[in-house]
Amino acid sequence: MSGPHYPGFDTLSLHAGAAPDPATGARATPIHFTSAFAFRDSDHAAALFNMERAGHVYSRVSNPTNAVLEERIAALEGGVAGIATASGQAAMHLGLSTIAGAGSHIVASRALYGGSHNLLSYTLKRFGIETTFVDPRDLDAWRAAIRPNTKVLFGETLGNPGLDVLNIPAIAAIAHEHHLPLMVDATFTTPYLLRPFDHGADLVFHSATKFLCGHGTAVGGLLVDGGTFDWQAAYDKTGHFAELCEPYDGFHGMVFAEESTVAAFALRARREGLRDFGAVMSPHNAFAILQGVETLSLRMERHVANTMKVAEFLSSHTAVESVSYPGLPSHPDHALAQTLLPKGCGAVLSFNLKGDRAAGRRFVDGLKVFSHLANVGDAKSLVIHPASTTHFRVPTEQLAVAGIAEGTMRLSVGLEDADDLIEDLARCLKLSQKGA
Amino acid sequence: MLLTVDGVQAYCYTGGKAFNPAQPTAVFIHGAQNDHSVWILQTRYFAHHGYNVLAVDLPGHGRSQGDARTSVEALADWLIALLDAAGVEKAALFGHSMGSLIALEAAFRAPACVTHLGMLGSTWPMKVSDALLETSRSDEPAAIDMVNIWSHSTMSQKPSCPGPGFYTMGGSQRLMQRISAINPALVFHTDFSACNSYANGEAAAQSVRCPALFIFGTKDMMTPPRSAKLLTTTIAHCKVVSVDSGHSMMSEQPDAVLDALFNFVSGSR
Fold it and tell me: Considering its fold, how many domains does chain B have in total?
């Protein structure tokens, strides 16, 4: 007989945080469309407001449907708490703003999603938070960029646009040497392919819009506190993270690190950032994302299998200059990917088509199964041609600086029959070269 | 709140309110490989409803310095010394698991100091299996996982603790791991050995004259309610409350545990 074991990933995907509704017996998680929740009496109300009892007060701070999703992602990631937000951008902002403010500094990978880059480069800078961007593969650069006012290191598990694999163990070690946490955007990998906390990360967020939802139906974000970072020890050494280790006037002088030894970050993020910035997820979206999470492992297996077939097809095609996918031996992070991503490298890849922007347009305009749009992580296959969409005003030379060529395509490989995807791509690769 | 006990710094969480000598005091004592934060909701409620709260970190646990004590008797002596250091003459003692034995032994050693005795997830003898005892010595992370799995009855407790969105099984695992990280001196094994070797439970129970409360988790695999019969029959005047939970009852059923504790002390004040 085997010893005790935690519930497995698939079991958690279906059950963590959810039980049949005690009022109705409903087996599916109900959508709690309510703004507020009635108090039993005035003492109950005061106790809820003052965190003496657990429960719901107002849906901007918590909602029963959202709570199921939050607890489920925390369980799947191996963390202590989740917070559902209006979008992945909101999750990133909530994570950073909980521990950084005017005068703070962030060290970030330069291989980031454009929206994350915008937030760090322009918007947070306007609020006094500076970011230094580094080559994610250059460990010395991470170390050298840390300043006395640095509060967090940040990167994506799979970077953009080159699918760089973040060396989480090495970068976490650098962060921890300096008494800093590592925050990771794990959108492309999901906890099924990679659990960043197992490798040293301390905070994780997702654009749940993508693979967690899985069907392109809801925008949402999830921030997860790993409970791994000792904020008090860091504060004692560096004076950083007073937000968690000194009395907070905005919540009756609460010292979050005293209240909760391991979930101080999540407490503050909910009690301050979610409350005050208000970027909360709709319970309807929480329900839609929960439906996706229930089948996450099944979908990710198929996503990865299809992507590998597509990547191998593209890499042998004469109209393709190069393919960037860590599952291929040609990718510079292939060996690291085999260590950190043994179940596969996700379902997003990029490739460079031979030819100019016009060839790229002929390719995307001819596709019938792939949809041309700006998203990833749908059950349906997606494609975007940066040079004619997100970067259409950018001169060719500047595109190259961003790692994008005129013929660069990004694919998000869906769950269709792989043969149909390859046929669609093959036909349009041929079409793309006709005008050359 | 920081105190000095036996010349060493000791930490007590006070529930978000300053200590007020004019108020009655409730002392909360955590179990093996834990700290004060397992009582977060109950302690905040008590502190904001007319009680001083002293939720201790036992020596060598969390924020309290010094070596972990190797016997329940030594821990009870430390607790009595802590009350003295805080200037508390009388207090209600609430203990969970190993903490319940410390409360019981403190009531035996200093009965005049104890107004109420609350024992949660308790039993006596508190025998720890040879396998778990050995695992806590040779492979502490594995022992943490074993105890964490056995201590939780569900992966979907509502409304969770300390609030919605918190995954209590994950929080409990991380807390025990943190106790190890702060103090790598095999605290878990020391705590389990203290529970395992505590021999004075029956005599201590026979001496209890103050109001006594037992709270049992109906799904508790660590200290099954039926195993506590000797204690509940010996303390014949005790009150027994059952809650739908495993061993981690303060997080699995925070309101039910709070209501049982608060009604117990406020009803007989």
Answer: 1
